[in-house]
What we know:
The chain is an all-alpha fold. It is 97% helix and 0% strand. The radius of gyration is 32 Å and the shape is rod-shaped.
Amino acid sequence: DANNQRIEKNCSRLEVLLEQSQAYSDKIDAQHKTANELFDEVRDNAQEIAERRKQILANHHGVVENKKHIAKML
């Protein structure tokens, strides 16, 4: 009789643990999805920053050339 009670108690505890485990799995999946989305945003931002840096350097080169041209005219 005591053994049957122990078995029933363990089964009910197991059900609770399984439910908790599933809830944690769902949370992990959601967090993983969010992390991947943020990673994609960071990567996209890094690419945009690199493009802007190229444009800035190109503009800087143009400014230097214009300064040289103006200096010659003076």
